[in-house]
Amino acid sequence: LGRKLNAALSSLNRAPIVDEKVVDATLKEITAALLESDVNVKLVASLRQKVKAKVKAAFESSDKSKDANRRNTIQKAVFDELVHLVDPGVEPYKPTKGKTNVIMAVGLQGNGKTTTCTKLAAHLTRLDNPRQKRRLHTSFKKERFEVIIVDTSGRHKQESELFEEMVQIGEAVDPNMTVLILDASIGQAAEAQSRAFKETADFGAIIVTKMDGHAKGGGAISAVAATKTPIIFLGVGEHLHDLDKFSPQPFISKLLGLGDMQGLMEHMQDLATQNPDKQKEMAKKLEEGKLSIRDWREQISNVMNMGPISKIASMIPGLPQELLQGSDEEGTLRMKRMIYITDSMNTLELDSDGSPFMEMGKDGKPIGLTWRVTRVARGSGTSVREVEELLCQYRMMANMAKQAGGKNGWLSAMQKMQ
Ligand code: GDP
Ligand code: MG
């Protein structure tokens, strides 16, 4: 799904002119990709309409705006609507300290309840991960968190018996939160299944398992919409640590090849041990949403020094998915090209948020590109289109950093959780 969505956005980036035709073509590709991965037809149709309405309004309000700006509008609309799909706007239960928190897992047999309960326990303790041990001491253990995870068997031929047992266990353990464990591979059936469980067990969170397989996963997204319940984790393998924290923005961002800010933050924390001052500064900028082109460039070159790009590159915001295709050597070459482009920028440009490259209209909105773009393209032996694309990617990243940062952003929410 990710590759297809990214392909749609990439062809949008390559289109010389962004008019209604291009918008329609992009939306067609995006809806096809979503349908193929089993997202509910109605949801896809409504997404398409909403994006279209947003883009249309933007086009009409600033008809002088040029293609780069239009691309941004479309990308942002797609991004926001996809986030909306996986974000029911409900906060999941968070374990509180000083009391016993009971979490109960429900779901059909084989969906991965037992596996997930084990993973969850490992996640909450992280006893076998020395790096996470520090966090354990500052949060769960020191602050006297108690979490009890209750697995259920779900081994019944009749669904009614399963639900009956679930109710009985629920009454006995009185859970603070019930989690529905959904297998990503069930596709469209996820919606009916989650509705049925919601009626009996009223779960407050969903964990989608087997996201690592060739599962389509889109059905699970539809389940979120159908039950207005947040996904909290994804199961991504059979092993103890194959559990990823789920948050709507980073998930969609990664899906679209726009990077994973959360992963990046974590990675930067690792790097902090190597160069504490520098990385602290960078993390602060990320939080404040004030990353300049120079900072972004530094992230890219950091990645290049860190070994296999395929592993790390997907975390860097604004890196196109194409960079990840092909061999690591090819990926390095492509990244070098991005570095070449920024190498041809001067101090003013590097320390900017990209605005020197934009020609502003009277209303303060960008209406085109300045001569600087041509100069950079010449200097780096690339094309105006490539420089424009790089600026586009940078701006997407910067927008996301801004959304992620601040008091209400998910970055701060994430830090509070730790
Ligand atoms: P339960 O019946 O709901 O308790 O399901 P289990 O926990 O016994 O899991 C059923 C099967 O799914 C086992 O073979 C697990 O290894 C496998 N499984 C569970 N979660 C994942 C996952 O995230 N990825 C993959 N690939 N397999 C998983
Ligand atoms: Mg089991």
Structure explained in plain terms:
With 418 residues, the protein is an alpha/beta fold. The chain contains 19 helices and 8 strands. The strands form 2 sheets. The chain has a 6-stranded mixed β-sheet, with helices on both faces. The longest helix is centred in the first third of the chain and has 21 residues, at 41-61. The chain binds guanosine-5'-diphosphate and magnesium ion. Magnesium ion (MG) binds at residues 113-114.
Write the layout of secondary structure elements.
Elements: H1 2-14, H2 20-36, H3 41-61, H4 67-86, E1 100-106, H5 113-125, H6 130-141, E2 146-150, H7 159-173, E3 177-183, H8 189-201, E4 205-209, H9 218-227, E5 231-235, E6 243-245, H10 248-255, H11 261-272, H12 276-288, H13 293-304, H14 309-312, H15 328-343, H16 347-350, E7 358-360, E8 366-369, H17 371-380, H18 384-404, H19 410-417
Parallel strand pairs: 1-2, 1-3, 3-4, 4-5
Antiparallel strand pairs: 5-6, 7-8
Helix pairs in contact: 1-2, 2-3, 3-4, 4-10, 4-18, 8-9, 11-12, 13-15, 15-17, 17-18
Bound molecules: guanosine-5'-diphosphate and magnesium ion (MG).
| CATH-derived architecture of the largest domain | Orthogonal Bundle
Structural domain tally: 3
Low-confidence stretches: 127-133, 135-139, 407-418
Count of separate DSSP helical elements:
19
Class by SSE composition: alpha/beta
CATH homologous superfamily descriptor of the largest domain: Signal recognition particle, SRP54 subunit, M-domain
What hetero molecules are in the model?
A: guanosine-5'-diphosphate, magnesium ion
CATH class of the largest domain: Mainly Alpha
Rg measurement, Å: 23 Å
Largest sheet: 6 strands, mixed
